[in-house]
Amino acid sequence: MTVPLSFYVAVSAGLFFIGCAGVLTRRNAVVILMCVELMLNAANLALVAFSRRFGAVDERGSVFVIFVFVIAAAEVAVGLAIVLSAYRNRPVIDVDEIHQMKG
Amino acid sequence: MPVGPFGLDPLIWGPLRLVIAVALALFLVLNGALLQIYLERKIQAIIQDRLGPYHVGPFGLLQTFADAIKLIAKEDVRARATDPWFFLAAPALVFCPMLASWVVLPFAQDIVGADLNIGLLYLTTLGSMTVLGIVIAGWASNNKYALVGGLRSAGQLISYEIPQILALVSVALVVGSLSMVDITRSQPGPLVNVLVLPLSFVIYFIAALAETNRTPFDLPEAESELVAGWLTEYSGMRWGTMLALSEYGNVTVVSSIVTTLWFGGWQGPGVDAVPILGVLWFTLKVYGVIVVMMWIRATLPRLRIDQLMTFCWLGLIPLALLNILVVAVLALAFPDTKIPIAIASWVLLLAFIAGIPFVQRRRLASLRARASASAVRAAS
Amino acid sequence: MRFDFVEPVVFALLAFGVIGAGAAVVLLNRVTASALLMALSFLCMAGMFVLLGAETIAAFQVLIYVGAITVLIIFGVQFTKQGGDRSYALFFQKQYPLAAALVAAVAIPVVLFAFSFNAPTPQPGGGDIRPLATSVFTDFAFAFEVASVLLLAAMVGAIVLTQRDEPPDGMRRRR
Predict the structure, then answer these.
(1) What is the CATH number of the domain that holds C69?
(2) What pLDDT is stored for residue C4 in this prediction?
């Protein structure tokens, strides 16, 4: 008995909403980055699940997962760099306190 | 109903096979570590004109057993300021990936845990997981030496992973497979890959020395600079698991990769007639590579951290990229023969070795010029 | 179909790991613990990929998410001072019930809707590296190139952003 596709999609949706809630409620910039990664990963699961169950032989859905990996890596590198340079100006990591850019 | 090997139900055979594989890997890791520590000490002693361990057992053979028993019997010390969960989790995080990578090592014709079609990718993946354990160990120790050691180690491991993977890519390009068994099968004769791709072998070997924290790249645990790096707060069997088992296990894994990819794995004289002879050839080749690593440890001094990073990012990575480019173009241009790749690779390797003194001289000259210029500025 | 019950059991464990670790990332107050649990969530996700028969994607997942992104995030945690009394956003501090109700109102229908998908034919597992590579390097070659340029730009950007403005040699010595 294989696990039906719907279960994978449900896990994906659940993880996406957990990440979403984290981005909304947490104030630590690093944790917000982590939650964004969780959301990207949830999207990956949905892509792979649909690709493996619906797709033809050529794995088109999974290819996008590779691009999502690239985006995630770039995003976390630049995001952390921004957090660190903001931290160097004023040593807070709290997104509510980082408001130098507000006019 | 399908029947597995030995007339067992596959439902039983599956888990049983797993248990046997894990037990065998553990056995090999434990004994390999004991043997390698002994070898290391003896070889260092011979090179430095000493005797090495000789008290316990004949030729000191039981010395490492005695050490292991001492480690196991030692009190389990944990400093109060350490982070309990992470402190306990870190050795497991270092040890488990190493143990898991033994699954795909092909010891002989059919003696392999699982012939994954992404074997090489699997090995690099597990290699990259070690970093996490080391960073966590450094962080959990709550000690500045451990923290600095952990961060240094993470920087080093992540940097040297890149040339390592790039070197593996060139082999995959030539062989056309990522499966360890296929790679071994592709080099049956005397034309092993090290003759075809010497440059990628050298790059991989240097990067592997850094990955396994061997001298000249053993900065993460540089005794004279950082006490013991990220291992400072660990003692007893936890230290034994991290250092002795994981490090020497990783050395074995890396040497097995070198053996499989560049030295033909279990291929050797007489293997076709007696397949079990492959284990002997494989072990001999692996230990040959390990002995070279120990020899290097006794010969070369340790690098400084900025030299280490400069060498990786400005030396190895561009070289590895160039190597991939050349190998890919030649593999596409001459799909039937490996000779052009071999010629190009040897030329590149010789150019690399011959070019080092020139580059080094120019770097030293520019450093000297900068130093004297700043001295003049400071004096004025 | 040799193992009738193994796959669902493994799936249940992995799903518990993914969701539980993900929830812990959001709920825990300690940032280092969050980072480590995020790695656990990623690992369980890789297990799910293997269960779906996409081993290559699983290997990339572990290589990139556990080996690189988690380590990078732990670096970020270690370079910044953590702590502080309030760990949740100001907007949601007093409105937990309201926020929970809002998220649940969206999330529960979506998750329930997700259960309505069913697949016509499960693809055979294993050996997904060849079709994947063929796809990436033929149909999506341009996207691949763009992605590599993006990575290069991100790398340069990260280096520039985190670089300290070094004072000139003479200045530093006089101080």
Answers:
(1) 1.20.120.1200
(2) 61
